[in-house]
């Protein structure tokens, strides 16, 4: 199973008033063609920074990729000049965000927004075929009466509809890879389910590969084939979705799973949560970054950074408990 995208040893630094901090530290994973890879972790764990690094959309000039490779079809995107990235964004890799209003231009009509990537990348389309293409894209993402809405503005739409418009824009050029960064977090449960369903349906119909970023393990279970668990800028565990849920290894992953609401649990069961706080990137402890919250912490955890260990084929964990 060939990876379509391979992230290797990626480290990203941010400048702060107190000096540079590493928001992402030697992160690696493969996205297999046609599959969905989930990246899960609490906010601030480096999920979005990883996504922005792949797109080369890190905030400038305060953030930079310090080391590592992002290999797409044999090309290292990290080494590409910025101009070449423009032809990759949208056409090969697209991204959608949690807040569609940030991606949509409030003074542009739906027609203008959705036709934009097409006008740039397919200048040969005449006005009529451009309009037909925009209507098709909007209908495909479930916007009812799309041809009657071409002159509508973003603020005239509900949050769910705006998210659909953003998805239509992201899919306009049939990218090979879609990165979805918490695309449903701001939506209510029903709309969330519709959007997840939409992404799955489109993925199947055009054979796209997806990176799905979320803090919600329920979404991971529904949506993903493979999972990367991140904590404080590092990958702590990586496995296929069923293996991760059935046989989690890292104490952090176990804690996340234990705090998941369960359908079969009696109604008033108290959810366990992981006590303590994620350490700030400014004051990371030496050794394991999870040590202050870990129920299994040992002497060496305070001094030695855990190595990446393969506990099985395709199952990686970074924890001293498995280093035997
Ligand atoms: Fe816990 Fe130590 Fe494993 Fe870190 S390395 S998760 S502190 S047992
Ligand atoms: Mg985020």
UniProtKB/TrEMBL annotation:
Protein's recorded name: ABC transporter ATP-binding protein
CDD domains given in the database record: ABC_NikE_OppD_transporters
Originating organism: Desulfoluna limicola
GO MF, one example: ATP binding
Domain ABC transporter: 7-257
Main localization (coarse): membrane
Keyword annotations from UniProtKB, A to Z: ATP-binding, Cell membrane, Membrane, Nucleotide-binding, Transport
Membrane topology per record: Peripheral membrane protein
Locations listed in the record: Cell inner membrane
Family recorded in the similarity comment: Belongs to the ABC transporter superfamily.
Pfam family, one: oligo_HPY
